[in-house]
């Protein structure tokens, strides 16, 4: 395999139909090409694509990059805001910030897709605020949103659902003709809204735990048991809002994913996952034994990723498959496709996928803050406590416990085995990327190094599994966190009493900005540090385990309300990664109480 410095791949050719993305030999489809022009792939949080090869990439807190074929990338920053989500319609991109504001990046659009009073002046030249939501006097803060072909939907924090754009019955106002530049009120008490790149309808969930829909109903794609178009919202029978992970709709079909990973389709045959039309959501047979965790639908395309990093696609394909009424060839039922080689033996990396009218993008999710923290550690080379000495007097700074725990080899043994070969410094650095954050950029090279170290390839353990094992390895813990204990202290006792938690020093340094700052004023010989947070020993123990595993785990012995309250405060106090998922996990625990 040729070495590549990117983990972002695309499939598709500019000016070609999406149905031409695949080789005649199904075992080699789709054709993946590394997208090398995108720099700093590890900072990518989300990619969305609309018309042609155009795509918008969200990087960091508030940075965006827009790519068009044969043009230089355009960079944008939304000042004084933090991005919450980005989405794409046909020729418009919308950006939602955590403060509830909406921004637009658009091309001239005659169908009112841009939620502005003067959309004609837009041409992917600048990010423009959407005054309808951004003005203080409006007090309309958006919580979530969705886009379909030439229409947009916004759920505000008060549960009001607004929509704008081309109508055709999908604005829910009982009409089908008049387009709306500015959003109009559609429904109230809404919790989520779902769309699709080229959908002619939309779905939403309500505070009453119901699923509803509105718009064009070609071949029964609304899932309501008939094919009648709906100009006003109607309930989708037999579905509860709490069961739905994702739902996407396109011009003639809809796909629903449950939180258990089950996949249901309705609408036109060949695109719904079946060989016949379905007017209600029906579980797709070929995916019944799979847990789908990521789905994206494009122009009559469906792509589903499982929890085991398997990619399934249907609705398009090679000439070996039937032709639909439009002359497009398609795979009628889910078919397993290949992944780029660097992902094939690396199930620990969660993948994300997106597609537009003519291109598919596949890329790793870097929202795993555990992986992010150790990637930063590797790149910064701070707090290194050892060196890997190679031939030609080359020394590479490393963190001893990280390297030894991942290889189950002592540093001296690794040096002896590697020095028997002629690996360059750059090749060893690629190996260390696997050590620190599971990145495989050159599978052939990594296999050679594994063979040299007498390790089995592909790797049996993921980074997360090895770190979990490290948590259980009490003998290798080299540091003590002292927690002040006031509960059993008598009033006449002068000295403070502390409870001890053993931990690996590098874990504290990697996972907490607070401890990084503290260690700048502590000698390297120090073997302990005091925690002044005032939090209970139970909460801190849970947090420490989270540092290793990325999971908040409560037992029956814990006071859940106390732990939740203390851990909610821990993100800011301990200066955790901004992508920490602690709050999401705590909210899930709250919902189960």
From TrEMBL:
InterPro entries to which the protein is assigned, alphabetical: BTB/POZ_dom, Ran_GTPase-activating, RCC1/BLIP-II, Reg_chr_condens, SKP1/BTB/POZ_sf
A Pfam family matched in the record: BTB
Domain BTB as annotated: residue spans: 477-556
RCC repeats: 209-260
PANTHER family according to UniProt: REGULATOR OF CHROMOSOME CONDENSATION
Protein name in UniProt: BTB domain-containing protein
Annotated source species: Anaeramoeba flamelloides
């Amino acid at each position: 395999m040729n070495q590549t410095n990117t983990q972002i791949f695309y499939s598709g050719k500019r000016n070609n139909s999406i149905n031409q993305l695949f080789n005649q030999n199904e075992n080699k489809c789709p054709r993946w090409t590394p997208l090398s022009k995108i720099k700093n792939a590890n900072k990518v949080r989300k990619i969305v694509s609309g018309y042609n090869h155009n795509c918008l990439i969200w990087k960091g807190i508030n940075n965006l990059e827009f790519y068009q074929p044969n043009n230089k990338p355009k960079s944008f920053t939304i000042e004084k805001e933090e991005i919450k989500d980005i989405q794409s319609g046909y020729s418009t991109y919308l950006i939602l910030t955590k403060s509830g504001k909406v921004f637009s990046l658009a091309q001239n659009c005659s169908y009112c897709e841009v939620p502005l009073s003067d959309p004609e002046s837009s041409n992917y030249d600048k990010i423009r605020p959407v005054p309808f939501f951004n003005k203080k006097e409006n007090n309309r803060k958006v919580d979530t949103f969705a886009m379909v072909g030439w229409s947009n939907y916004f759920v505000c924090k008060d549960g009001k659902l607004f929509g704008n754009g081309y109508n055709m019955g999908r604005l829910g106002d009982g009409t089908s003709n008049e387009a709306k530049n500015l959003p109009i009120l559609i429904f109230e008490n809404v919790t989520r809204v779902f769309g699709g790149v080229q959908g002619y309808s939309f779905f939403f969930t309500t505070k009453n735990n119901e699923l509803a829909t509105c718009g064009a109903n070609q071949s029964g794609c609304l899932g309501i048991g008939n094919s009648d178009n709906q100009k006003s919202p109607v309930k989708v029978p037999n579905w509860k809002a709490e069961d739905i992970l994702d739902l996407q709709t396109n011009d003639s079909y809809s796909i629903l994913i449950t939180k258990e990973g089950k996949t249901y389709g309705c609408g036109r045959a060949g695109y719904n996952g079946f060989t016949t039309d379905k007017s209600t959501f029906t579980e797709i047979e070929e995916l019944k034994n799979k847990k789908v965790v990521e789905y994206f639908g494009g122009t009559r395309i469906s792509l589903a990723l499982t929890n085991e990093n398997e990619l399934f696609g249907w609705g398009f394909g090679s000439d070996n498959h039937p032709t639909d009424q439009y002359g497009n060839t398609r795979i009628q039922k889910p078919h397993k496709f290949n992944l780029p080689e660097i992902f094939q033996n690396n199930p620990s990396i969660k993948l994300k996928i997106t597609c537009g009218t003519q291109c598919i993008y596949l890329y790793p999710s870097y929202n795993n803050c555990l992986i992010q923290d150790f990637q930063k550690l590797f790149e910064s080379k701070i707090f290194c406590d050892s060196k890997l000495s190679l031939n030609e007097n080359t020394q590479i700074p490393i963190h001893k416990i990280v390297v030894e725990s991942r290889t189950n080899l002592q540093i001296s043994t690794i040096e002896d085995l590697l020095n028997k070969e002629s690996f360059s410094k750059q090749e060893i650095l690629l190996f260390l990327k696997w050590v620190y954050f599971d990145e495989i950029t050159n599978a052939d090279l990594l296999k050679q190094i594994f063979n040299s170290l007498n390790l089995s390839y592909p790797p049996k353990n993921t980074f997360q599994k090895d770190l979990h094992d490290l948590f259980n390895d009490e003998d290798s813990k080299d540091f003590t966190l002292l927690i002040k204990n006031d509960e059993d202290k008598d009033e006449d006792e002068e000295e403070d009493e502390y409870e001890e938690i053993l931990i690996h020093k590098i874990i504290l340094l990697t996972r907490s900005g607070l401890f990084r700052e503290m260690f700048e004023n502590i000698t390297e010989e120090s073997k302990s540090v005091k925690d002044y947070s005032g939090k209970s020993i139970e909460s801190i123990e849970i947090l420490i385990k989270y540092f290793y595993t990325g999971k908040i785990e409560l037992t029956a012995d814990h006071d859940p309300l106390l732990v939740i309250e203390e851990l909610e405060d821990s993100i800011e106090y301990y200066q955790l990664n901004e992508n920490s998922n602690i709050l999401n996990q705590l909210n899930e625990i709250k919902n189960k109480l």
